[in-house]
Amino acid sequence: MMTKAKQPPASGQKSIKSFFSKNPRPPPSQAAPPSQDTKHTSAGPKQAPEKQEPPVNTRTSPRKKASTPAQPAAPAAADEAAAPAKTTAAEVAAEPDGCQLVCKRVSVYWPDDDDWYQGTVKGFNGSKHRIAYDDGEQETVDLSVEKYKIISGTEPEPEPKPEQRSAKRRAAHVIFSDDDDEEMSKEADESPGDSASGSDFGQDEEKEPAKKKAKTAPTPAKATTNKTPASKTPARTAPSSAQSMGKKTPATKTPSAKPAGSSAKLAAMPAAIASSTPAPKGMEASDDWQRYTQRAAQRFPFLAADRVMDANRRRPGHPDWDPRTLHIPPTWFKDAKVSEGQRQWWQFKAQHFDSVMLFKMGKFYEMFEMDAHVGSDVLGLSYMRGEQPHCGFPEANYQAHAERLARAGLRVVVIEQTETPDQLKLRNEERRARGQTKVNVVNRELVAVLTQGTLSDPDMLRSHPDASYLLALLETPAPEHDGGPQPEAGGTLLAACAVDVASGHMLIGQWCDDPMRTRLRALLAALHPAELVLPKAGLDGASGKVLKAAAGSVRTNHLDFEDAAAGRQGLADSAYFDEQGTSAEGKAGMPPLLQGLMEAGDSHDPSLRALAGCLAYLRSVLLDRPVMAMCRPEWLPQSSFPSPGGDSAADSAAAAGRPPACMALDGNALEALEVLEGSSGGTDGSLLGALDRCVTPAGRRLLRSWLCRPLDDVDAITARQDAVHDLMHGISEEMGTARQRFAGVGDLERGVARIVAACAGATGRDAEAVVLYEDAAKRRVMAFVSTLRSLQALQRAMEGLQAACGDMSSTLLQKLVTPGQALPAFAEPLDALVAAADWEEAAAQGRVIPTPGTNAEVDEAEAGLAAVEKKLAGYLKEVKQLLKGGPISSISYVPLHKETHVLEIPSELEKAVPGNWERLAQRKGFSRYMSPALRKLVKERNELLQTRELALSSVLKGLLMRFSQHRDTWGGAVEAMAQLDALASLAAAAMDASANGPVCRPEFIAPGSNKASDTPAVFRARQLRHPAAACGGEWGSFVPNDVCLGGEEAPFILLTGPNMGGKSTLLRQVCLAVVMAQAGAWVPAESLQLTPTDALFVRSGARDAIMSGQSTFFVELAETAAALHRASARSLVALDELGRGTSTSDGAAIAAAVLQHLASTICCRGLFATHYHRLADDHQDDANVSVRHMACHVDSAGDCEQVTFLYKLAEGACPKSYGPNVARLAGLPPSLLAPGFQYW
């Protein structure tokens, strides 16, 4: 049957039902929340399971004319031909009915859509017909009360199944049967996809969604000449030009998380400015995008570029303009006839205009207006049909979608319902009693703010085990140093506070940095911050450029940092630690480091201000209390903190938490040596990848920090080496068993931290007032049970290691496995918690039933219930005695409706029933009575049941509080496990590496003073290989070399050799050997002797810093300057081809001066790779410089020399660099090489 294409509405005209409609779908019932997989009630759309491919909508019928270009108006005759004849009631009654309609073709009128839809009658159940529409949707409907027309023709070929839609068409006109409700509810339960929405604005949320809908008489058909029929439901097929041409478009896209680009602009920019607001990908040329922007310009005039203002009515360009907020004229809500639900949404949006808002309606998170564009662009959600942009997803998909939005660099605001319809009804009754007007929407509150650096939900962190730091930075002028070294010209004082909100790990510190911000770059390279917090004015030029270059894609927040006095007062008044009081171990609530920082002098003010700035941001995202409840503060390595035993007790307290002495590794070293990341971006090919055999996330995070901060204390290094040796040889089997148990504990560090944070006050979606359809209580019980099981596995692992203590020679290992030393005595509190309930039953039921004797309130209620049950049994005996003379054995208690105990008495005994007994019901041969005495007992029993339920509801909270009181114990146990895991990883890596060549335990020589005349620092390695050799496989084999620096040999090596001859590799393997040795690892060599290195400087590779406006040569010299200023006699410096970024004469002169200063003035160890062969001649007889080269074999036959690389370190200088050989290998045409050979 042909249908006529209809014209789209004129601008501003509503022909598609809006989500601001006054008659939307009601939300699902909140009285009895369904399972988390449930979608909608009978009015909701059917959806495909998540694991299945979403259906594809290829419909091009008039129901989809929202994206169809306007057509010229057709004559009335065409309309009559296009649509079926309007059937009258008499005609309907005259048509065949019942089974006679099966297999017939019909056209059914949908009042809400004001249109007719064709289909085939597939079946009849005696009262209703099942219709399969031509678009693929099916419906069970009573045709005797519907407008329909029998049509001719045959059933068309089946199209690809369109996206399922709700049975919205008679939202106020059809009564569904109980069978239909059950069927549709079952379909909803089985369909946890994203392709349907929850609710619309404007609905009366006080009303519970009815399972049966009111029916009215069929309304006359309306003229459809100038209307575009809405679809049966607003299906989530994203409008696009591709669809208007009939192309298949997936209903749900699943793009990977992307940086906040166009999506951030879509979320934060005025939606009415179409010219400056980018369209979601794929919608740039669509009619829908133009329609959305035109509608926004007309409906939201306050978003226009020349009228937009912040909440304080300041315009863009004002010094204090706040782009995070929006001013909405108070009269707009009335003028625009805004519903209560719409007003509520805009009030939240005005406070968080820069954020993407997830607005909870029923059991769906809805995204409206500019947020809907973000949902389409980032999450791949399809738009609901209608004039307003609108999409959403079910509660069950919250973690996945919210995480994706946050990891895309967006700020996500979660608005949850904090009131049920029943509670709203009670509130309205109270308002009515006070003479106030009725409220039609439930209360909602902002419960969570998610960003890339503030994710703490376990489900959002499951695939990201590494720490995710929020970093607050502050910059102040460098202080004057009386009698001490003056700061470098262009230097500055930087302070930082970094926190991992998931584990509570906090780093605080301050330092004086050089003009290149070397230490800042090292901090950024080591922490890889996920989010930055900076002062409102930002940082100065040099620091700002470093941040832009190193963390340009990281989300950055600007706010006012308090001064030190205000920071101290704020921390003192915050009461973060008051609720915790003292822990079970008797320690004060506030960590000693923070206590000392508050009491320290002015010299620590920058650190305190950085902490205050970090807390201010955490407060703005509702995380300050949870983070401070579980925080474990430490000083940043290389910070300028007071030494213990200083001039004041405050300084000594501030020094608490000071890390052990460690080697200084700057950002250049971490990157050039590929300590944490390989050239491909992952850990493959990196030092971390070569050594990481950890089985726990906490162990991996600790190993990573060890490599960023190698030890600089011989005793500490030796203790770690002894532990690794024992794990390799003494207790390898016991440790293998323990590691198997460690592998089952999961991320125990974050699990403990989350429980402790929750006890400080439930926040986010865990808050008590939040209305959730998922079983939140069961989820909390499961999380607690999982943590207890993990601690039990840890306890068993430690007990196994304790049994092997006699075989341990390592003092460190013994401390880590002995309760009361490095390992807290956690068995007793853990056993008490485990014995407090049947946790297997708790995991299965989702609620905690305490073991008798562990909860006085529950025990008292249980005792009362047992007494009442005894009274009931005794009363039943009394009744039998009273009515004796008949079949008294048949007298019993039965339940009836809401009554749990009703007397069921045989009919032959009814004459003996006392007159004051009330007969409630009867069945054949029996009557059911309620006596006054029984009613009293039942009432007493019900009251005790309520008392028990109330007591049971607080059991989990009480156990969580008991758990939190031992937070230091659990934290210490997890830390001991992490150290054991990291040590075992070093041992396993050493044993794996031994299969590919010799490995050795480095031998450390105690350092002398920094004067060159005293004991010099040394580095002596035999048959040293690159650590990547330990990996084998794709990394191939490495030629071993003997390397000696210092001692009897010169401390510096001047290294020459052919291009690609292995000079850079030798430099890297020497530096990596030092890092491995001081981290406590075995080194791939036959032997290694070295003096601990206090700092490692690496200048390698040619790169510029475009974002900082620095050329390649400038970067070379700036990195070299950092080594010249900070290196000592115990440092190791590796310079690779310094001076190549300028002319030969200039580069050679600079290289010669730098080499002379490092080797003769600083007298440090180092390697200097160069192609300036004159330097080799100049230092041929220099006792501080050893001239070496990477050996090669040269075949001079032919026009171009053939060079074979030997990769062996040899005495003397290489005669030349053999550049033509590399040119030949790179594929330069031979015709160019032969003529050019004369220049080489």
Automatic annotation (TrEMBL):
Domain DNA mismatch repair protein MutS core: 682-1032
Domain DNA mismatch repair proteins mutS family per the UniProt entry, residue ranges: 1050-1239
UniProt record, GO biological process: mismatch repair
GO MF: ATP binding; ATP-dependent DNA damage sensor activity; mismatched DNA binding
Biased composition (Low complexity): 67-95, 216-235, 247-260
Residue numbers spanned by region Disordered: 1-95, 150-267
InterPro entries named among the record's database cross-references: DNA_mismatch_repair_MutS-lik_N, DNA_mismatch_repair_MutS/MSH, DNA_mismatch_repair_MutS_C, DNA_mismatch_repair_MutS_clamp, DNA_mismatch_repair_MutS_core, DNA_mismatch_repair_MutS_N, DNA_mismatch_repair_MutS_sf, MutS
Pfam families (alphabetical): MutS_I, MutS_III, MutS_IV, MutS_V
Annotated Gene Ontology cellular component terms: MutSalpha complex
Keywords, in A-Z order: ATP-binding, DNA damage, DNA repair, DNA-binding, Nucleotide-binding
Bias kind Polar residues: ranges: 10-21
Role, per record: Component of the post-replicative DNA mismatch repair system (MMR).
Similarity annotation: Belongs to the DNA mismatch repair MutS family.
Protein name: DNA mismatch repair protein
